[in-house]
């Protein structure tokens, strides 16, 4: 009898079909979990943005700019010379109802403005602070009610569009 002394080689073992199925199922579960986590992450990021958009205050209403006709007035003078002021005004208003109320009473508003301007000296109007004080004074004059018992008109600002002292 013959004996073989050569070592026997082991045949390569191929994975069974059960191991392949388990590996495929494991990869599918990991992929599904990653996709679900991605969807949750991005949806959770968008939800607070939508909630904060609802909680954000509404933007303020766009103001209405109401230009008045230019006016020319004689200024007070101590030096004997005649000084004139040519002024253009634009009123910044909050709503169209205010504009309508001012339009209806425009002769009274212009009269108030002209009387106030004709009482000014050129030296008072020359510095920047004099112009700012004039704007505040005009705002106060314009907001006064035109009818007794009426509510005051709401003017946000008085803007100069023309200002010439001569």
Task: Describe this structure in a few short sentences.
The protein is an alpha+beta fold.
SSE layout:
Elements: H1 17-55, E1 64-67, E2 71-75, E3 83-93, H2 96-104, H3 106-118, H4 122-125, H5 128-143, E4 155-165
Antiparallel strand pairs: 1-3, 2-3, 3-4
Helix pairs in contact: 3-5
Query: For the report, how would you describe the main beta sheet?
Result: 4 strands, antiparallel
Strand content: 15-25%
Q: Report the CATH topology name of the largest domain.
A: Tetrahydropterin Synthase, Chain A
The count of DSSP E runs of length 2 or more, i.e. the number of strands, is 4
How many structural domains are formed by the residues?
2
Q: What class do helices, strands and sheet pairing give?
A: alpha+beta
Helices and strands, in order, run as HEEEHHHHE
Gross morphology is rod-shaped
Proportion in helices: 40-55%
CATH architecture of the largest domain: 2-Layer Sandwich
Low-pLDDT runs of 5+ residues are none
Ends apart, CA distance between termini:
139 Å
| Mean of pLDDT | 82
Give the count of helical stretches.
5
Cα Rg: 42 Å
CATH class of the largest domain: Alpha Beta
Describe the structure.
The chain folds into 2 domains: 19-56; 64-165, Tetrahydropterin Synthase, Chain A (2-Layer Sandwich), CATH 3.30.479. The model has no long low-confidence stretch (mean pLDDT 82). A hairpin with a 7-residue loop joins strand 2 (71-75) and strand 3 (83-93). The chain has 5 helices and 4 strands. Helices cover 49% and strands 19% of the residues.
């Amino acid at each position: 009898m013959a004996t073989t002394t050569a070592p026997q080689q082991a045949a390569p073992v191929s994975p069974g079909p059960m191991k392949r199925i388990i590996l495929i199922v494991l990869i599918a579960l990991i992929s599904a979990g990653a996709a679900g986590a991605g969807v949750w992450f991005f949806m959770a990021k968008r939800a607070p943005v939508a909630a904060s958009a609802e909680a954000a205050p509404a933007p303020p209403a766009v103001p209405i700019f109401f230009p008045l006709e230019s006016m020319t007035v004689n200024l007070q003078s101590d030096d004997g010379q005649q000084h004139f002021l040519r002024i253009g005004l634009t009123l910044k208003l909050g709503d169209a109802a205010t504009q309508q109320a001012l339009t209806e009473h425009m002769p009274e508003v212009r009269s108030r403005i002209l009387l106030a301007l004709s009482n000014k000296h050129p030296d008072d109007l020359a510095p920047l602070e004099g112009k700012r004080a004039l704007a505040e004074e005009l705002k106060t004059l314009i907001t006064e009610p035109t009818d007794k018992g009426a509510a005051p008109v709401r003017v946000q600002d008085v803007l100069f569009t023309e200002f010439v002292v001569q």
